[in-house]
Design a protein that fits this description.
heterodimer; A: 287 residues; alpha/beta; Elongation Factor Tu (Ef-tu), domain 3; Rossmann fold; 3 domains; 7-stranded mixed sheet; 20% helix; B: 319 residues; TIM Barrel; 8-stranded parallel sheet; 4-stranded antiparallel sheet; 8 helices; 14 strands; 28% helix
Amino acid sequence: MVANRRFSGRYRELVLDAPELAASVRAGQFVSILCSTVDDPLLRRPFSVYRVDPGAGTIGILYEVLGRGTSLIARWERGDIANVLGPLGNYFTVPKGEGPLALVGGGVGVAPLLALAHEVAPSGRPIHAILGARTASMLLGVDEFEALGVRVSISTDDGSQGYHGFVSGLLASLLQGGAGREPLRPDAIFTCGPRPMMAAIAEIARAHGIPCSVSMEVSMACGFGVCMGCAWPVRSGSDSDAGPTYRLVCTDGPVFNADEIIWEPRQARCACAGGKAEGTGEEHDHA
Amino acid sequence: MREPAKPTHPPAMPAVDLSVEIGTLRLRNPVTTASGTFGYGREMADLVDLSRLGAITVKTLQLHPRPGNPPPRICETPAGMINSIGLPGSGIEHFLKEDLPFLRGYGTPVILSVAGSRVEEYVALVERVHGEEGIAAIELNISCPNVKQGGLAFSVDPHATAQVVSACRAATARPLIAKLTPNVTHIATIARAAADAGADAIAAINTIQAMAIDVRSRRPRIATNIGGLSGPAIRPIAVRMVWEIAQAVSIPIIGMGGITSAADALEFILAGATAVAVGTATFRSPGAVIEVIDGLGPLLAELGVARIRDLVGAVQLWE
């Protein structure tokens, strides 16, 4: 562990000396960190990598102290050894071309988008980062994007900085243009943040016919495809009666084409949960 | 946080015999994987040397593909987790075609785990794999809802347990392992029913029914409301149940429930298990099953015990 410090606002940064990861991890991938040497908290915590420095052999993650796991991580000190598994999951695929890319982030969802900006910026391709937060002090990554030469637009729910409203509203207005502004015409949109935010961004992208990649976050137990705990429903090509199609966020994702995602999964109707079956043969059971 | 470096190869082995027998099945060491925590083996092959396991128990298979339950499927709880995955899988045919040939290459015994919602489905699965090479034993996961008996798990009822086991017994000569639910009043009664119906071994325990509620949203933290608790939190319950089963049956027991270390494994063996399975610990540490195996030799050497089978049921009860 090279550093574990306050990053900005309520967010913290953990920098790890991990040459193998630094040499291989791609923007959008994640690592999972064991936060306790005892049995509790039991599970690893997944974190997107936000910055990679292959020269120094380090990777950085951004986190917010939210629960027992991140509280423990926040106590670690330089020189401590962390148990880190990765790189895990897939990564952002950038379409060929030279047109601009729009990166839409909310909260700590900015992390993988910063990694993407680090990856793309050296090519000179224009990037427009559109960042939302509840209030100005909770904005994350503005300086880092600007240091990469990325154009940044800001929204806050309370209007304390930038556009007053949700980041989806800001994106819609940027795509529409007007008031002497050229409309933004990105080749692709990449988004990560709270699920309702991403659902709104995906809907706007679809309406404008712009390809959109979303980075999903779901509770995970293993992170490497065996517990099947992080499944998310997707649209299947066939629309059969066989029931929903699920993809694993850890190994099929975390990056998905936004058109695939079913944002409001049907609530469970599990026979065994209610303790009685209807004899339809459609019962779910507990693995 | 500091952690000792993990051994990358087995430690210099004291002269300890870790081999055990489950009916006609001989295992080089007593450690297998709990079904549903190790995929079909293939997913773990880059992370774990599969040739070192006592046996590989694969994720429970059914006749047909199933999608599984809606999210959220898991939540973390104190020293454990609740899951309601819903047995997703591509079905027995896909496994036989795609996964079993891969597993055969390792020479490690494969324990097939099967489930159905009717007795006939268990029998069909057992018959389907007749003649397939590389299946050392079949685990009957009878912790699933029994459609004909109102959706209660087969293994909450001794008669339903006996029905499944005896029907499968008539259909195969392979070792049969009955995997029991702990969600019963007297697990020993169920174990005895399985043994009397011809099971070669008992696997216990499956997950314990549990619930966790988010106080802000007032929603249960998993989509099926109730799920199954696993992990170190359930270990003392599992050890107690294995001990109760060992008092009631003479067939071998595969003990499981929250095992993370060799000492945990030995607890189950002392309670009466002949072999053990590592489950949820794999989610935390993919190499957990190897760590358990590697820890057994030194632990037995320290205890001055030459053969692990000498410790099966060797708990010394208080008077």
